[in-house]
Amino acid sequence: MKTISFDLDDTLIPGTKVFETEPQNWFQRLNKTEKIRLGTIQLFKQLRRRNFRIVIYTTSFRSVFSIRYTFLTYGIWLDEIINQSKHNNLLKERKYVCTKLPSAFGIDIHVDDSDGVKMEGEKFNFKTIIIAEKETNWATKILNEISQANP
Question: Which one in 42, 70, 80, 110 has a CA-CA gap of 20 to 30 Å to 60?
Fold first, then answer.
């Protein structure tokens, strides 16, 4: 089973970058649930059908509970959540200095918006897929790159 991870801020959750988001139901609006990028629900369903583990890997200090809660309200189960605290705890033992190191957590592919993470992937030998702010076919891009890597 392959594992794919996703960054949150400006990749799946709009912040400084703006993109279309999934519709929210009344419960999500009432509870001010964070919005997620349009296409996330369908993409994650397709990844499940392809037998992928789905992980969130973020430099955010959001709690694991709040991240899990957000995605559950959209009907998405996450297999693992790596926030900044978990990242720091593991990597300080290994003396790595980098913003992300998916391979340390058994992750095969990491999806992010940052070219800096792409450079770290080249330096530390982990696979990245970089998604641009205005990339409307971002989910198709991910599925195509996965298919090319695993024919």
Answer: 42
pLDDT tens, position by position, 74-104: 999 999 999 998 988 877 766 667 789 899 8
- CATH class, domain 2-149, is alpha beta
Strand partners, 6: 56, 111
Q: Specify the DSSP element, H or E, that contains 40.
A: helix 40-49
Task: Please work out, in degrees rounded to the nearest 5, the angle formed at the alpha carbon of residue 85 by the alpha carbons of 83 and 86.
Answer: 70
Per DSSP, the three-state class of 11 is coil
Q: Residue 17, SS3?
A: coil
Global pTM reads 0.94
Q: Any idea what DSSP says for residue 9?
A: B
Please give the Cα distance from 4 to 128 (Å, whole number): 10
Crossing angle of helices 40-49 and 138-149, rounded to 10°: 20
> What DSSP element (H or E) covers 142?
helix 138-149
